Amino acid sequence: MSEIRLAGITRRYARGAAPAVDDVSLTVRDGEFFVLLGPSGCGKTTLLRTIAGLEQPDAGTVHIGDRDVTTLPPRRRDLAMVFQGYAVFPHLTVAQNIGFGLRMRRAPQAEIDEAVRYAAGLVQLGDVLDRYPSALSGGQRQRVAVARAVAVRPSVLLMDEPLSNLDALLRLSFRAELKALAKELTTTIVYVTHDQVEALSLGDRVAVMRAGEIVQCGSPMEVYANPVTRFVGGFLGTPPMNVLPVRRTGSGWTLAGHGFPVPDAVGGAVGADEVLAGVRAEHLEPATAEVADGLPATVRVVEPLGSQLLITAAVGEETVKLLTPTDFPAADGTRLWLRVAPDRVRWFDPASERVLAV
Predict the structure, then answer these.
(1) Which end of the chain is more exposed for a tag (fewer CB within 10 A), N or C?
(2) 3 state DSSP class of 97
(3) How does DSSP classify residue 303?
(4) What is the CATH number of the domain that holds 200?
(5) Same domain flag for 178 and 37
(6) Is residue 195 located within the same domain as residue 246?
(7) What are the pLDDT digits (tens) for 281-295?
(8) 280 to 109, 308, 321, 326: CA distances (angstroms)
(9) What's residue 267's pLDDT?
(10) CB–CB of 69/5 below 8 Å?
(11) Which domain holds residue 274?
């Protein structure tokens, strides 16, 4: 069993300073690909290093399987780590790099050779085992680092932004390779990233972190479709979720001076004269002819993305982004009317910025 259980983990780097990780409790299931997602400085790498034993928590415990490993050094936790940098040895061949961890454990040469062939095959490096890192591309060097971690057959594999040093095309291809690799292994994987595309495409579950805390944890599509805070809605998605103020008037509710339907339960729950409506770009339906229940908008910018158009438009003084097919007739200054299905709106309390439970 390689389930990971964190209970009340807190880590401060200076007395009196805000905690880098603040009372985090979390369970990563056996064999799960689990992603820690968040902006720089949110505590995700500190949490990963605490699992690895590279950081000691000021409070809380770490269990891997049925063992309390809180005070154990990294070498006794049966895990391996892949860092942001390649961290390959330039004076060793690919095969020697991959087998390095096993040599440090003084494994028999036959065992090392078998493990190297196995790990190299998983990451498609079998034909370059005799080369040195200087003769490899950036993507190949990162695969060497992954293979070195896999070769020791750890029960837990930790990855700290392993794709961030690769260019866009390499990230795309290597991301697919990582997902395929995860299916081949029985290892529990914890993956740290600030890239929400990586998180959504790779993870079985995603934990979104902010200021040392886990804000939301769930399946990628659950977190994307049902963010529990404005922050999560804005952090996940390209473009981010549109969050617009809807104000109560004598005759109902308005957005930028135009009528906007707000369910009675939402109006009663917020207890104020304003509520925030969160709408994804793909859920705004534009029309070039006036529609009775549409919000009037003016196109500011049109950005072709290949398969879609990303349109930035003004609704009164508010700015929204929407996605349309490439043949949608839009240009700077075009007048649009935007509709949104009521069940596509996420309602947030403007004071707490948390979703309204209605």
Answers:
(1) N
(2) helix
(3) E
(4) 3.40.50.300
(5) yes
(6) no
(7) 999 999 999 888 899
(8) 55, 15, 8, 18
(9) 74
(10) no
(11) 242-348
